[in-house]
Amino acid sequence: MGKLLVVGTLAFDAIESPFGKTDKILGGAATYIGLAAANFDVSSCIVSVVGDDFPQEYMDLLTDRNISLDGVEVVKGGKTFFWSGKYHLDMNTRDTLATELNTLADFNPVVPDNFKDADVVMLGNLHPSIQLSVINQMEKKPKLIVLDTMNYWMDNSLEELKEVIKHIDVITLNDEEARQLTGEYSLVKAAQKIEKMGPKYVVIKKGEHGALLFHNQSIFFAPALPLEEVFDPTGAGDTFAGGFAGYLAASKNISFENLKNAVIQGSNLASFCVEKFGTERMLTVTKEEIANRLLQFRELTQFNIEIE
Fold it and tell me: How far apart are CA 51 and CA 79, in angstroms?
């Protein structure tokens, strides 16, 4: 069984979209990553921080899926990270209504001893100094270190972010962020520049338009599955990352050909995430549903053509 270390937020979210709204519900990058990865044969551990307002019920949802919470610090009297957002009608744009760092403001990650030899490390979207601290705590070089980041860190901690990027194998970011990081409009040129910063592989996410995987001069494109209904895009990117990292940790194969499969696995799971609010769909999705939708992905992209 592969070992996956996940670093990211356990959080409360309050979400509003054209299809409804929620009160405080379970959220956070590490939550989505962990739930997605749990669909593969992996032993996972989350490194995060919460306040004592984080319900035991939420803890149990994760541990029931073979996700260790030994790396989760519970701050007595503290409050858990909270985010609130409202999506516009196109579901691609949103307004952040509230961000309360709470216990996350003073988070110092501690990797449990039994996961310092993890096969894959998935660094969720956090301050680059936290991500680098986790890398430095690993006693054995992981087969793969995957980093997720966002434009906020490019605006506020660019030099620290560039330092972390030197030490990773895969970076995942969206098209807007890839352009901001490199100053290149062409995603091909942007990926080439990012590879020179350190990563062997670059994954550029394009939301409802799929994802691109770059390695040297090779490019692979995975479409997003057209869906009848999209209720809430929150966590889709983290679900993608969890499926991607979980599949690779389980298969223990980090070749470019297998990373293509990982991109499809991540895209497949993300397609379920958006069907309900928050983590609701990821908590009910079955192995059979996942397998059937993988067949849909194959039908979407497979064709025969004769080239003269």
Answer: 4
Phi-psi group of 278: left, alpha or beta (phi > 0 → left; psi -120 to 50 → alpha; rest → beta):
left
Give bridge partners of residue 6 from the DSSP assignment: 46, 122
Query: In whole numbers, what is the pLDDT of the chain averaged over residues?
Result: 94
Task: Give yes or no for a contact between 66 and 41, defined as CB atoms under 8 angstroms apart.
Answer: no
Q: Is 0.85 topped by the overall pTM?
A: yes
**pLDDT given at position 88:** 86
Torsion angle (degrees, nearest 10) of CA 237, 238, 244, 249:
170
Q: Enter the DSSP assignment of 223.
A: P
* Residues 17 and 275 sit within 8 Å (Cβ to Cβ): no
Domains assigned to the chain = 2-301 (3.40.1190.20)
> Tokens for 283?
């908590």
Q: Within 10 A of 113 (CB to CB), how many other CB atoms are there? A: 10
Reply yes or no on whether the pLDDT at 153 is more than 80: yes
